[in-house]
Amino acid sequence: MKKIHLNIGHIGLLDAAPLLIARERGFFEAEGLSVALSCELGLATIFGKLAESRLDGACLPVQMPVLLSAGAGMPRVSMQAAVVTSYQGTGIMMAKTKQSSRSAGAALRIGVIAPGTSARLFLHRYQQLNPGGMLADAVLVPVVASQLIDFFRDGMFDGFCGIDPLPSLAALRSDVVCVADSAGLFPMHPGGVSALRTEVVERNPQVAAGWARALGRACEECADPAHHAEIWRLVFSQAPYKELDSASRTALTRPLGENRPGGPSIRFGNSDKGSGRVAEPEAFIDAVCRSALGSGLRGLDIKAEIAQIYLLKAQRQAVSLR
After folding, report:
1. Bond into 187 cis (ω within 30)
2. Residue 77 is part of which domain span?
3. Buried/exposed 5-16: b ≥16 CB within 10 Å, e otherwise
């Protein structure tokens, strides 16, 4: 059987761990897929390469396949076969000095990894839970993921909203505080998704099922604490962490899911094994899309887009059979 070659992009965050594990374990190969992974500078680079057909798919924040398919604030790229591969794992981090010295009425500048991220929804939810909180009217500043920590430390913005390990890296410093973990704002919300361009799926109809099976197996591996040291090794082997010092590596390589000081807790797979609860991502994806673009989505049937793009029903069935 001839293997189908796929070029898949990601930005080196923990939500890409299932992709790295699936490649390392040979799960893609077992499904007849030859997958080449590339760690890109940021999401804008991935969007451009998807639009130019230089990438066949990507690991993205969970709402991005809808926004790409709609061409909402980014190049229009029809996406399908979206598999949710991580849950939670986003933190809102603040510099203590900026927090304490902020003048009354001044809007805080919050770094984000791209326009259209879930940051706006998380900030709104934080304000609901903390009336009069510091994040009211915060200004979002898009920055490529690989430069987010450096720009934050250089004082270009007051805080940031990002996916692990970015919050955990920032929290290693005593002058940084975790204002909110997304797990406390939207428990078991979907975080990362790996999706393919529609053109790729239509050209190779069998690819979607194999893609989903390989990632499903990888998520189960990622959810096992016995494999967490390997996950950290694979993530830290990516370009953004080449110069990360050994002390920081050691501090971060605790089992995922432990409450690392100041950092969020990412989970993999699509069930909360502690309670047997299956997460329902549709409502969250819908809310993130509406929060990100507001009136720009008038006339777009988001629920229909979700049903067409994501393999959520198949993921729930897979969980029920375990």
Report:
1. no
2. 4-88+189-320
3. ebbbbbbbbbbb
Torsion of CA 137, 66, 20, 259, to 10 degrees: 40
Spatial strand order in the sheet of 90-95: 139-142, 109-112, 159-163, 90-95, 176-181
Band the pLDDT of 135: cuts 50, 70, 90. confident
**CA distances, 150 to each of 169, 175, 213, 215, 301 (Å):** 11, 14, 37, 32, 39
Q: What is the chain's mean pLDDT, rounded?
A: 85
User: How much is the pLDDT for 249?
Assistant: 85
3-state SS, residue 311 = coil
User: Which of 169, 185, 201 marks a domain boundary?
Assistant: 185
Among residues 128, 151, 185, the one where a domain terminates is 185
pTM of the model: 0.89
- Structure token digits, residue 30: 């077992």
Burial readout 249-286 (b: 16 or more C-beta within 10 A, e: otherwise): eeebbbebeeebebbbbbbbbbbeeeeeeebebeebbb
Number of other residues whose CB lies within 10 A of the CB of residue 130: 13
CA-based nearest residue to 36, from 60, 2, 7: 7
DSSP H or E run through 193: strand 190-197
Domain count of the chain?
A: 2
The answer to whether the beta carbons of residues 85 and 192 sit under 8 Å apart is yes
